[in-house]
Specification:
There is one protein chain. The chain is of the alpha/beta class and about 120 residues long. It has a single domain (about 35-120), classed as Response regulator (Rossmann fold). About 40% of the residues lie in helices and about 15% in strands. The chain has four helices and four strands; from the N terminus they run αβαβαβαβ. The longest helix is centred in the N-terminal third of the chain and has 20 residues, at about 5-25.
């Protein structure tokens, strides 16, 4: 018994099979994003940030591999903290890690829906 498949049916079948992995990949959950909020600068926070990322790695969360980071530094201009915190919230980060008391206060003030602020304990 011979099976006859028309050319169009074959192309539709092959096209659907080729698109299936793309559809499956599109359904993968998005990588969680941590927002880093600091009143300082990248230079002044390097030790703190390195320790934070090492702690994440100990919990199997590697920045760039299975968790992303958004960094916001006020560059010692504390009045910028509210706008920086609002920007992180607007970007829908999953959690805000606040470096220092001033950043933690700004991260916890306001209507942040499902975003949580975790103050740094150093």
């Amino acid at each position: 018994m011979a099976i006859h498949i028309r050319r169009r049916e074959l192309l539709v079948t092959l096209g659907g099979a080729a698109a299936w992995p793309l559809a499956a990949r599109a359904q993968q959950p998005a990588m969680p994003v941590i927002g880093w909020l600091s009143p300082g600068s990248q230079d002044t926070d390097q030790f703190r940030l390195t320790a934070f990322e090492q702690g994440l790695a100990e919990g199997a969360h590697v920045v760039g591999r299975n968790v992303a980071m958004e960094y916001r530094w006020a560059e010692d201009q504390h009045y910028r903290l509210p706008a920086l915190a609002a920007d992180l919230v607007q970007r829908r980060v999953n959690v805000i890690a606040a470096a220092g008391v001033a950043a933690a206060r700004e991260g916890q003030s306001g209507e942040f829906d499902d975003t949580h602020c975790v103050p740094d304990r150093h």
